[in-house]
Design brief:
With 274 residues, this protein is of the alpha/beta class. The chain is 46% helix and 11% strand. Helix 1 packs across helix 11, helix 2 packs parallel to helix 11 and helix 3 crosses helix 11. The structure holds adenosine monophosphate and magnesium ion (MG).
Length: 274
Amino acid sequence: MGVKKAFAAKFIAAPGKALELAKLDPRDDSAFEDKEKAKVQLLADAEAIDRLQDRLFAEGKRALLVVLQGIDCSGKDGTVRAVFNCCGPLGVAVKSFKVPSEEERAHDYLWRVHHGCPPRGIIGIFNRSHYEDVLVVKVEKFAAPEAIERRYEEINQFEKLISNAGTKILKFMLHISKEEQAVRLQERVDDAAKHWKFKPSDLETRAKWDQYQAAYEVAVTRCSTDVAPWHVIPSDRNWARNAAVARIVRETLEEMNPQYPKPDGWDPRTVKVA
Ligand code: AMP
Ligand code: MG
């Protein structure tokens, strides 16, 4: 394993190995020397992601799909903002997955997801994803257990399909503690500017904390693959979360190494604009 891969390796859920979230400290910031250095690194990485995204767009041959999952208040929106802050809107597409619409429910669960996947040249960001179909759907019993049981392998096959077609997939589970969620939910109650983010039903979901943690463990364990690895990101500290995701996205794009295309049918040495 090269130096570059060493950073992501700290967070990857090893394919085939059972994930135990209780053993992973959501406050762990040992990947960084200190907060100030991590913030400087984040800014440099966000700028590098912008430059690489320009090359990916110009190349037009491959896509990157960044999947963000995590319970309420885990920081999915904040991560999008911090990591892709420098990117122009041209080449980045954010897709949020909410409760399925009537039309979406009339199709298989991957229909809306496949439709939302980034085309070649684009960085696609999923704010929630098809994993809701083995998380909330499992805990709330919105589908039959046998159907849910089949989904893990269906998801692996689906991700293999889009990977074979040229999309690099990175999946991030933002791991926060129950205590930190309480603090953040309370902020949403206390701050009028955050009321729109709060629903009373968020408290019912919170009451099922252990069931959600267990569902995440199964999803990550069964769907962390070589083509679409899960990364579990300690997320009680926003700065450590942002810096970790940015560094992994940057390294992945560097590894993809997109190239500006050569001039097609003309020679820059012979063209002079009068
Ligand atoms: P938020 O991300 O806070 O805007 O909330 C979106 C809500 O949609 C969350 O409560 C998700 O659990 C829910 N959701 C997303 N996908 C699905 C799905 N496939 N089935 C049921 N609920 C979903
Ligand atoms: Mg919410």
